[in-house]
Amino acid sequence: MANPINKQQAIMLIMKGIQHDVRQYKQLHQLMVEQQESYLKFDGEALQELIAKQRPLIANLSRSAAKRSELMALLGLSQTKAGMATLLQALPEKLKKPMNEYWQTLELCIRSCHQLNQLNGQISASYSEMLQQVNNKQSYSSGNLMQL
Fold first, then answer.
1. Residue 96: which CATH number?
2. What is the mean pLDDT of the chain?
3. Which residues form a coiled coil (predicted)?
């Protein structure tokens, strides 16, 4: 059985997790930009590859957020922005500023990815609609040819 972690270890794990998540969200953002470009180029093969690359990143980020919530609970803090603000304020001065910056960067990365995801969802719906219209026209044209 693993030894339970102490509060100092929990804080270190949270800080390392935030730094790791920033890197992962930046990777995800880049893949989402490429996904958008693939939609606009009608490159279905590239889309599938990009979506396959995004899945493990999203799964990792989800696990990381769950782990951060567990660690926050272990520290007796709420799993909210207020709880994180309390934790960041309690850090030693030499860590407070850089960790605040990492946390703000993480929040910005998350918002940016959410916005890009919404835009990609709209493009995806338009992409699917156009493909459906093209397929329907081809079917219709084929039917007309059969009548000739």
1. 1.20.58.300
2. 89
3. none
